[in-house]
Amino acid sequence: MWGLVPLFWPLLKPSGAIEILAHRMVWSLVAVGAALLVLRRWAWIGELLRQPRRLALIGLAAAVITVNWGVYIWSVNSGHVVEASLGYFINPLVTIAMGVLLLKERLRPVQWAAVGVGAAAVVVLAVGAGRPPWISLTLALTFATYGLVKKKVNLGGLESLAAETAMQFLPALGYLVWLGTQGEATFASHGAGHGALLTATGVVTAAPLVCFGAAAIRVPLSTLGLLQYLAPVFQFGLGILYFHEAMPAERWAGFSLVWLALTLLTWDALRTARRGRVALAAAGRRVEPLPTPSLNPPGVRVGEE
């Protein structure tokens, strides 16, 4: 679903990126709230309201994802789908770099090599385009930061999105009201179909998250990790085949380096997971069974009374 979202945002024109973003915030809260109502998952709200630190982190997550959503919508509707896809390709590399810089995590040699190749890819793309790939870097940095903050918050996907959009709701609604007073709102002025599409931004945001949560329960973690690359692959394909964006040689070179870095990361992750399973199985075989307790009282032989 995430990989096909670039097909949706152009349908919302002539709405501008900020208006679309505001509608996405408002209707996402409505959609997620409805899902939580059906699932009867409300108990977490009272607990969250009693924890100012978690509320502050959710506020930070809401601010970061606002930037991410806004840049992504603008990039798709401005003809930068391929560059947007690059942001989600390099997101795992940025996440690893943030783990080293902020959490003092130690990397394995292959991970260091992947990060180095990813950095080289950014340089190649910047030189080829004559500017840094700021759309890609912004999307990658904001989404990696968002993931880091959500890890600290430790709240379920639906619950977290509900809390974040609740913080976004009033500013977004205020902007839409102001836009209406200026005569620039498109919700009602371009027909019922356009209004319905703007309303659907909530479902477009919430539905993939619900499906991802369901898959996380049923699909092995290693498979789930590989599936995260499907979204940027679809976005990249749409950018070239559907939106017909240019792919000069230097861009292909930069993307090839990114894909090489991701191949290294994937290979290292699968190898590490396999070693972990082998070690666990070996440890299980080394555990000796406990002796079976005797059914006879001490000092009494079988057949004696």
Write out key terms for the chains shown.
disordered C terminus, mainly alpha, EamA family transporter RarD, EamA_dom, 13 helices, 305 residues
What can you tell me about this protein's structure?
The protein is built from 13 helices and no strands. By secondary structure, it is mainly α. It has one domain (2-278). The longest helix has 38 residues, at 249-286. It comes from Streptomyces sp. NBC_00060.
Oligomeric description of these chains: single chain
How would you sum up the global shape? globular
Summarize model confidence as the mean pLDDT: 85
Q: Using the CA coordinates, give the radius of gyration.
A: 25 Å
Q: Percentage of helical residues?
A: over 70%
Category from helices, strands and their pairing: mainly alpha
Order of helices and strands: HHHHHHHHHHHHH
Number of domains: 1
Give the CA-CA distance, first to last residue: 75 Å
Major sheet details: none
Task: State the low-pLDDT regions, or none.
Answer: 298-305
Strand content: under 5%
| SS element count, helices | 13
**In total, how many beta strands?**
0
Domain EamA: 2-125
Pfam family, one: EamA
Keywords: Cell membrane, Membrane, Transmembrane, Transmembrane helix, Transport
Main location: membrane
